[in-house]
Specification:
Strand order of the largest sheet: 6-7-8-3-9-10
Distance between the termini: 29 Å
Radius of gyration: 18 Å
Number of strands: 10
Bound molecules: adenosine-5'-triphosphate, magnesium ion
Strand content: 15-25%
CATH architecture of the largest domain: 3-Layer(aba) Sandwich
Structural class: alpha/beta
CATH topology of the largest domain: Rossmann fold
Largest sheet: 6 strands, mixed
CATH superfamily of the largest domain: P-loop containing nucleotide triphosphate hydrolases
CATH class of the largest domain: Alpha Beta
Length: about 260
């Protein structure tokens, strides 16, 4: 499934007028492609992601999945992973993974089987009966990913999922999940504040300007995924990282493209 955003504007009505969050954004994500989005705080990244998942109606333009306009959220098409994990504290790890399936009409037995499989996929098979508070932040984040994967979405939309974690955990989790996601062949859109993450994960990095968020640049990152951590020491990596750094430093508030 190809996800296609065309001429997208998103305007929020606010006191005293309109707030333009995203302006004239066009992009597409191919099946199996990993796209990262980077840009200054408040530039419209989360807004864009919500629109891509059908959670927000575009003011202008369209979001299409394989040529069909998306008019609302469909967790089997696009699943979200948010920064705060949004796990239910009173449910166990496995119940948290099952819940979307049960809402979607799976039998208890099927939900259990799929949840076990996804927990294995994120390396948490042994933690299924624990509660979220008994897990580290990185582990909770992996539960959130397992939950998102449980519905076999065609796309995974992740909004700074590693924001709350320390650098080392982010890296370890990043390598780990990157590998698993690459094998699953899913399209992924990841918003991040980290230049390293933006380059390391991506087939393509999209740089947004400060609000109203417009696409300043799309940069292709070469190199097969999953990538070893040493990828961060290659010329390909450092060149793209430097380019992103200068785009963002030179104030993506101005028109750069
Ligand atoms: N529901 C809303 N109503 C009105 N304005 C909103 C709403 N949601 C977001 N905004 C505004 O839209 C702009 C873009 O917000 P958004 O959350 O998309 O930015 P962001 O790039 O994700 O920022 P951050 O990096 O800090 O997460 C901001 O100015 C924000 O105040
Ligand atoms: Mg955001």
């Amino acid at each position: 499934m190809t996800l296609k955003v065309q001429d997208l504007d998103i305007i929020y009505p606010v006191d005293g007028g309109d707030l333009v969050a995203c302006q004239n954004i066009s992009l597409s994500v191919q099946p199996g492609e990993f796209v990262t989005v980077i840009g200054p705080s408040g530039c419209g990244k989360s807004t864009l992601l919500h629109a891509m998942g059908g959670m927000l109606r575009p003011t202008r333009g369209t979001v299409e999945a394989d040529g069909t306009v998306i008019t609302g959220p469909d967790p089997r098409k696009a699943a979200f992973v948010f920064q705060d994990y949004s796990l239910l504290p009173w449910k166990t790890v496995i119940q948290n993974v099952e819940i979307g399936l049960i809402f979607a009409g799976s039998t208890k037995k099927d939900a259990r089987r799929i949840a076990v499989e996804k927990l294995e996929r994120v390396g948490l098979a042994g933690y299924r009966d624990m509660y979220p508070r008994q897990l580290s932040g990185g582990m909770q984040q992996r539960v959130a990913v397992a939950r998102a994967l449980a519905l076999e979405p065609e796309y995974l939309l992740m909004d700074e999922p590693f924001g709350a974690l320390d650098e080392q955990t982010r890296r370890a989790l990043g390598v780990d999940l990157g590998e698993r996601l690459s094998k699953s062949g899913r399209g992924v859109v990841l918003i991040t504040h980290s230049l390293e993450e933006a380059v390391y994960w991506a087939d393509r990095v999209i740089v947004l300007s400060s609000r109203p968020g417009r696409i300043v640049k799309e940069i292709q990152v070469h190199g097969d995924r999953p990538r070893p951590l040493e990828f961060m020491t290659t010329e390909g990596f450092t060149e793209v990282r430097a380019e992103l750094f200068s785009l963002i430093e030179s104030g993506s508030s101005q028109e750069i493209a």
